[in-house]
Amino acid sequence: MATVSKKPRNREILFDSVIALVFILVACVDLCDGATVVDVYRLIQYDISGVPFGSRLASINHHAASLHFAPSADLSRTVLLIPLRELNMSFVQEYIGGSKPLGGLIFLLPQIFSFKNKGGASSNHDDGSKEPLKNVLDKLEQILIHTNLPYPVYFAFEDDNIDTVLLDIKKNDASGQPATATTGGYKFVVSATEPKKVGSPPITNIQGWLPGLKTDGDSHQLPTIAIVASYDTFGAAPALSVGSDSNGSGIVALLEVARLFSLLYSNPKTRGQYNLLFGLTSGGPYNYNGTRKWLQSFDQRLRESIDYAICLDSIGSWENDLWIHVSKPPENAFIKQILEDFSSVAEDLGFQVNLKHKKINISNPRVAWEHEQFSRLRVTAATLSELSTAPELLQSTGGLVDGRQFVNEAAIVRSVKLIAESLAKHIYGHQGKNVQIFADNSNLAVNPSYIRSWLDVLSRTPRVAPFLSKDDPFITALKKELEDHTDEVNLQREVLDGMFTFYDSTTAQLNIYQVASVTFDLLLLLVLGSYLIVLFSFLVITTRGLDDLISLFRRPPSRKMKTA
After folding, report:
1. What is the pLDDT of residues 464-489, one digit of tens each?
2. What span, in angstroms and rounded, lies between the C-alpha atoms of 4 and 142?
3. Which CATH superfamily is domain 202-495 in?
4. Domain boundaries in the chain?
5. pTM of the model
């Protein structure tokens, strides 16, 4: 009976041993498991006339290092984790400008630049100095979007988890033991498919009308004033480009002006003898491609009815001065009238409006201001902006530094007052009269709450045109809002054409793994091997006896001895 009960007992021992071995293996896996998962945002990838710019790859599978790497280190298979707070432009010039090989770059941005941060995300940093960080990020962004980078580049945001990882990486680098397959450390992995071209990127223009007071005949024979703003953005990271000022402020101002004049035009006694045409256009960063297509859809009759167009661009971060940019000579009758009306209202409001004239070169495809698309079709137009000079291509288009915290609501309120009162002077013939139609505390007063609510929406809505579908909820919301204040609202759907080609894969998840060194692996292998030998020996002894175990290690007798 004792012999019979011994086998089940041995099986229990074997089973317990296997379970113990499994736990050991799981523990080993845990030692190499993911430390954290982080949302990351890829640097834009695009071509201009076939010339590549931005990040050309999306996948990452390399060890990580910090800016404390050894001067002689080979970084071709290393991902650098770089906090914006520690970035110096000499590194940017040497490695990015100098095209030195890198396995990848991940820039760590302060939470103040995250439109998702509502004050709840934790961070160990004090963000008291916004402006210096903003200036550094602005310079970095312009360098990145105008450089061809043959490796993955991502942006992430500071939090306690990734700060802890960065601290460990810095310690390893400072000790002279950068992360490698031999030494261990942290490994960064982004699993992403190869970026593909965005085929036929859609752009959508939205327009609405406030028809003027009908006399005899068709109201469309009345003169027209157009109020226009481009609504899309461009930045180093498409998924982060919300453009609160450029051109969120212009969109908000247009919607509020439409709301104010809808109140006036709802009463025949206060409806002006001008049609008001409101246009929200797409493709702004790309030479106002959408504006050109929108204007080309006008028939000659409508085009000739436009007295002038006012384009709104970046009017949310100014203090004492605004600029009116024009292409036609200042002597032009309508240009003089625009300047007189706006200057008179600005003086009453306590600030100044300046005129900047710049001729356009029709043979040059570069369109710096939206009003230039009107001027190319011989329609009088001007752009109202806080910017005194025309931005360069893909500059000041709502990138990483253009967030809600850098926009002044009071500046937008003053801009709306300026636009609304100036238009009213022209529409109702109040030139030279001290008349305030949109006075404070009246039922026609500018509504700061309305401005704030729409500014909040725009400041958390990335809207880079190639990645906005034609049925995007944002476009639907804009259309609905315009329908609440204007008539005959319609959408014009077009395809972005010209010299730009874009690629997808704008967001991903970064998996951070803490990997053990080869030394640890060898030690672990030795421990596991010893355990298995002891386990094997124990099982053989208990089931077959010590002699059988010893016989396993004896040399077998030669064939001659067997024959004898």
Report:
1. 999 999 899 999 999 999 999 999 99
2. 81
3. Zn peptidases (3.40.630.10)
4. 33-115+130-197+506-515, 202-495, 524-553
5. 0.86
